[in-house]
Write a structure and sequence with these properties.
Blueprint: E1 2-10, H1 14-32, E2 35-40, H2 45-51, H3 57-65, E3 68-73, H4 77-80, H5 89-99, E4 104-110, H6 123-126, E5 130-136, E6 146-148, E7 155-157, H7 163-178, E8 183-188, H8 194-207, E9 214-219, H9 220-229, E10 236-239, H10 241-255, E11 264-266, E12 271-273, H11 292-304, H12 308-323, H13 339-350, H14 354-361
Helix pairs in contact: 1-11, 1-13, 7-8, 9-10, 11-12, 12-13, 13-14
Bound molecules: 1,4-dihydronicotinamide adenine dinucleotide, 2-OXO-4-methylpentanoic acid (COI) and magnesium ion.
Keywords: Amino-acid biosynthesis, Branched-chain amino acid biosynthesis, Cytoplasm, Leucine biosynthesis, Magnesium, Manganese, Metal-binding, NAD, Oxidoreductase
Protein name: 3-isopropylmalate dehydrogenase
Organism: Gramella jeungdoensis
Length: about 375
C-alpha cells in the first residue's frame, strides 16, 4: 500500500519520539513491501519562530492532502510561563483538530504484564485493566468563546455543545463497545453543568439503538477516584473534551507511564495519530523520552488503513522491548536505554533481526546497562 503521511514533530521531545515512529514505519514498509511517503511540516512553537504562526497555511495544506498525519507534541516553557502571550503553540494543535474535523480522540489503555509490579498502584488493582477513552476533541470549553476583560480583572471560557457534536462521537463509542466487552460509561458533571445534562439526555436516547450495551454514568469527580480505585470496571469511557484530556493523563499512571499512551484523532475525511503526552520540555535533547506512545500511535495509523498484521508487528516489538527491559528511564530504574536505542531495537525486531541490536550495542541483558 502507498500512504502519504504528513509528519508534524512539533516541539520539545516531539521530534525525538517521531523519529522513532518513522523508524518503525520504515521497517514495516521494508518488511511488508509498502510505500510510506513522509512529508514534514511545522507546527507549534517552532512554527511561530519560523513562520510567525503556530499552524502555517502550508502545514494545513500538507495535512489536508495527506492520507494520515503523525503528530509529536507542541508547547514551550517560553509560552507556558507567559500568560499574556498573544499567540500560543497550543493554538496550532487546536486549530488543526478543528480545521480537519477530528472530533473523536480515541485513547486505549491496557497493561503490560512486565510492568505490573512497577506501577504506583497495586498489582491486583491493575492486572487485566483494558479500556478505551472516547474523548470529544473539537468542541467544549477549549473551543468556546473566551475573553479577558479590558482591565484584566475578569475572564471567561464558554463550554458549549450541540446535539450533533455529541451524537457523532457517541455512535463511535457505542460501536466500539459492541465489539469489546459491551459496557459504556458516560463521564460528565450533569449534577451541575447544562452541557453535561445535554450529553446525558442524548446518550440515553442513542443507547436505545444499542440494546446490548450496558450503559452507566459517573460524575467526573467520582470517575477520577474510580480510575485509581477500580480501573477494571471500565470498558468504553465516553466523555467531553476537557474531562477526557484530564482523565486520560490520570489513567496513564495505571499503565506505568504517560509515555506509553497512544491515540487516534478521527474525523470524516482525515485522521491524525498522536501520543497523549505533551512536549516534556525538561527532556528535550536528552534522548530520554519514551518513544513508545508515538510508535504505538503509528500502529494505530496502520490499523486505520486495515494493516492489522503490520500494526500487530509494531505492538509485538513494543511488548518485547518492555519484556526485555529495553526501556527509557520512566519505565525502569535499572537499565536505562535512550529514546534512540529503544527505537532501534523496535525497528531491528520488526525486521526479524533482534540479535543485531544486541550485537551492535554490545548489550548484555543480564547486567544493568546505561547507554
Ligand atoms: N498534545 C500535545 O502536544 C500536548 C502539549 N502539551 C504542552 O506540553 C508542554 C509541557 O506540558 P506538561 O504539562 O509538562 O505535560 P507533558 O505531557 O509534556 O509532561 C508531563 C510529564 O509527563 C512525563 N512525560 C511526558 N511525556 C513523556 C515521555 N514521552 N516519556 C517519559 N515521560 C513523559 C514527564 O514526567 C513530564 O514531566 C506544555 O507546553 C503543554 O501545553 C501538553 C499536553 C499535550
Ligand atoms: C493543547 C492541549 C489541548 C493538548 C492536550 O493536552 C491533549 O490533547 O491531550
Ligand atoms: Mg492532554
Amino acid at each position: 500500500m502507498k500512504l502519504n503521511i504528513a509528519l508534524l514533530p512539533g516541539d520539545g521531545i516531539g521530534p525525538e519520539v517521531i523519529q522513532q515512529a518513522v523508524k518503525a514505519l520504515d521497517a514495516i514498509a521494508e518488511k511488508y513491501n509498502h510505500e510510506f511517503i513522509f512529508t514534514y511540516a511545522s507546527i507549534g512553537a517552532i512554527a511561530i519562530k519560523e513562520a510567525g504562526s503556530p499552524l502555517p497555511d502550508a502545514t494545513l495544506k500538507i495535512c489536508t492532502e495527506a492520507d494520515a498525519i503523525l503528530f509529536g507534541a507542541i508547547g514551550d516553557p517560553k509560552y507556558d510561563n507567559n500568560p499574556t502571550a498573544k499567540i500560543r503553540p497550543e493554538e496550532g494543535l487546536l486549530k488543526l483538530r478543528k480545521s480537519l474535523g477530528l472530533f473523536a480522540n480515541i485513547r486505549p489503555l491496557s497493561i503490560y504484564d512486565a510492568l505490573i509490579h512497577q506501577s504506583n498502584l497495586k498489582a491486583e488493582v491493575i492486572k487485566g485493566v483494558d479500556f478505551v477513552i472516547f474523548r470529544e476533541l473539537t468542541s467544549g470549553i477549549y473551543f468556546g468563546e473566551k475573553e479577558l476583560s479590558a482591565d484584566g480583572t475578569e475572564a471567561f471560557d464558554v463550554c458549549k455543545y450541540t446535539v450533533e457534536e455529541i451524537d457523532r462521537i457517541a455512535h463511535l463509542a457505542f460501536k466500539s463497545a459492541q465489539i469489546r466487552r459491551k459496557k459504556l460509561t458516560l463521564i460528565d458533571k450533569s449534577n451541575v453543568l447544562e452541557t453535561s445534562r445535554l450529553w446525558r439526555k442524548r446518550i440515553i436516547e442513542i443507547s436505545k439503538n444499542y440494546p446490548t450495551i450496558n450503559l452507566d454514568f459517573l460524575f467526573v469527580d467520582n470517575a477520577a477516584m474510580q480510575l485509581i480505585l477500580n480501573p477494571k470496571q471500565f470498558d468504553v469511557i465516553l466523555t467531553e473534551n476537557m474531562f477526557g484530556d484530564i482523565l486520560s493523563d490520570e489513567a496513564s499512571v495505571i499503565s506505568g507511564s504517560i509515555g506509553l499512551l497512544a491515540s487516534a484523532s478521527i474525523g470524516i475525511n482525515s485522521a491524525m495519530f498522536e501520543p497523549i503526552h505533551g512536549s516534556f520540555p525538561q527532556a528535550k535533547g536528552k534522548n530520554i523520552a519514551n518513544p513508545l506512545a508515538a510508535v504505538l500511535s503509528a500502529a494505530m495509523l496502520l490499523d486505520h488503513f486495515q494493516l492489522h498484521e503490520e500494526a500487530e508487528a509494531i505492538r509485538t516489538a513494543v511488548e518485547k522491548s518492555i519484556e526485555l527491559n529495553i526501556t527509557t528511564p520512566d519505565l525502569n530504574s535499572t537499565n536505562h536505554f535512550s529514546t534512540t536505542n529503544v527505537g532501534s531495537f523496535l525497528s531491528d525486531f520488526i525486521l526479524d533481526d533482534e540479535n543485531t541490536f544486541y550485537n551492535k550495542n554490545n548489550i548484555d541483558l543480564g547486567q544493568s546497562t546505561i547507554i
